[in-house]
Write a structure and sequence with these properties.
By secondary structure, the chain is an alpha+beta fold. The protein contains 8 helices and 5 strands, in the order H-H-H-H-H-H-E-H-E-E-H-E-E.
Length: 336
């Protein structure tokens, strides 16, 4: 805190003493010395405030005698008045210093608590990022396992089924038809597994990869849900940070899934654009709209999208326009 200059408080005492002299001894201004004493007690130190109290009493006595005040029969009234005045000043100094000590202690506790809260929030953010990163790595591992392991096994099973079908067909056995159906089911399982793997592990997201992944998301959405889904890229949105690109892709993926599950749309549009260091991702549908609900009642999908947006410093807005449907908009500005 800024310390009040010592010289200024001394000058203030002298000014009050001068005014006390000019007003004559019949009108005492002793209470006004407390202004300088209070400033000294609060902003400087206890010792300086005590010294200023003694100086104030001396100046007050000098102003009284200079103005013509005299006690002809005894000096006792002068001593008594001076002691009472000094004790009053010292009581004020003690009260102000005690209050200042409490004030400083409270400020110290607030600073400590603020530092602890900042540290706790920083640690929580770090843990949340780590949890998301672990989840993303686990998602990618599962996607790779599905594509590299399960798909290969299913493909091998389909080939074995085809061989079996050909053998049964060569012998003109009726079981050949059942074998053909089995091969079709396995091939469909292979395709579904590949689609699932692509959803878990999108293609490279940095640079042009994010736009390619969103385009692939639109294609997969239309194939799996039979809902018309378009991808629009108005301006090239190049992102070199893989973490930011991953979060944006997952936000779009969650918004599309929410639209399919809850909005009952017939058309979904995924749009991304970039200009002047700003990326805007918009997912819009023509469904039933987004009902206003309290934050505590919102689903996990909304919480995840907001959390991902917060992790990359983006702003997420979900609204239902007048013409209907739902619009999920995520805007991000910075060094991408």
């Amino acid at each position: 805190m800024l310390r009040w200059p010592r010289t200024s408080t001394v000058c203030l005492v002298l000014v009050v003493g001068g005014v006390d002299y000019l007003t004559n001894f019949g009108l005492s201004l002793s209470v006004f010395y407390l202004l300088a004493i209070g400033i000294a007690a609060w902003f400087v130190s206890r010792g300086f405030a005590i010294g200023l109290s003694v100086l104030s009493v001396i100046v007050w006595l000098g102003a009284q005698y200079a103005a013509g005040a005299r006690y002809y029969y005894s000096i006792v009234p002068t001593i008594w008045n001076s002691v009472i005045l000094l004790v009053s000043y010292l009581v004020v100094v003690w009260l102000l210093r005690s209050l200042r000590a409490l004030h400083d202690e409270l400020e110290a506790r607030v600073r400590q608590r603020t530092a602890a809260l900042i540290e706790e929030a920083t640690e929580r953010d770090r843990l949340e990022k780590e949890v998301l990163n672990i989840g993303e790595r686990e998602r990618q591992r599962i996607g790779h396992d599905l594509h590299d392991s399960l798909c290969q096994h299913l493909t091998a099973a389909a080939l074995a089924g085809q061989v079996l079908q050909e053998k049964l067909g060569a012998k003109l056995l009726p079981e050949a038809t059942d074998a053909s159906s089995l091969v079709q089911l396995v091939e469909q399982a292979v395709e579904d597994t590949r689609q699932l793997a692509r959803g878990l592990v999108p293609i490279e997201l940095t640079g042009e990869g994010l736009m390619d992944s969103l385009r692939e998301l639109a294609v997969m959405t239309e194939e799996r849900s039979k809902i018309h889904c378009d991808f629009i890229c108005e301006k090239s949105a190049l992102i070199n940070d893989s973490a930011i690109a991953t979060h944006l892709y997952r936000i779009a993926q969650e918004a599309v899934n929410n639209a399919i599950k809850h909005a009952k749309p017939s058309h979904i549009v995924i749009r991304i654009s970039g200009s002047h260091g700003q990326i805007e991702l918009v997912v819009r549908d023509d469904g039933v709209g987004f009902p206003p609900v309290p934050p505590k009642n919102r689903g996990m999908g909304m919480w995840i999208m907001n959390h991902r947006a917060g992790m990359i410093g983006a702003s997420l807005v979900v609204r239902s326009p007048v013409e209907g449907g739902t619009v999920v908009s995520c805007s991000l500005r910075g060094n991408l």
